[in-house]
Amino acid sequence: MVGERVQKFRKEAGMSLTELAERAGVAKSYLSALERNIQTNPSIQFLEKIADVLKVNINQLLKDNTEEESELYTNLDNEWQSLVKEAMNSGVSKEEFKEFLEFNKWKIKQK
User: Fold this and answer.
1) Most CB atoms within 10 A, among 14, 31, 37, 106?
2) Helix, strand and coil percent figures for the chain, each rounded to 5
């Protein structure tokens, strides 16, 4: 359940329920109800706020992954997301990024 995963990541981050609610700007009562599986259908906006504070991918809150997969998402997806955001903010277009990937594939074949 989503609430159980939120609670797991919150505890792993060493945060209290109050601290997570305050940092994410959500109601503590709603967060508590979610973690206790009283609320079972939170909005995507709510989960985005929670995921951002917990520094996890929103998919980690929605899907039940094994610990190894979860660690991979945590270590890889956040970094990739940051790189993509940085590329987008710097003005790199999708086409330019695709060209870079093609160039990189060609470069690897040349070795």
Assistant:
1) 31
2) 75, 0, 25
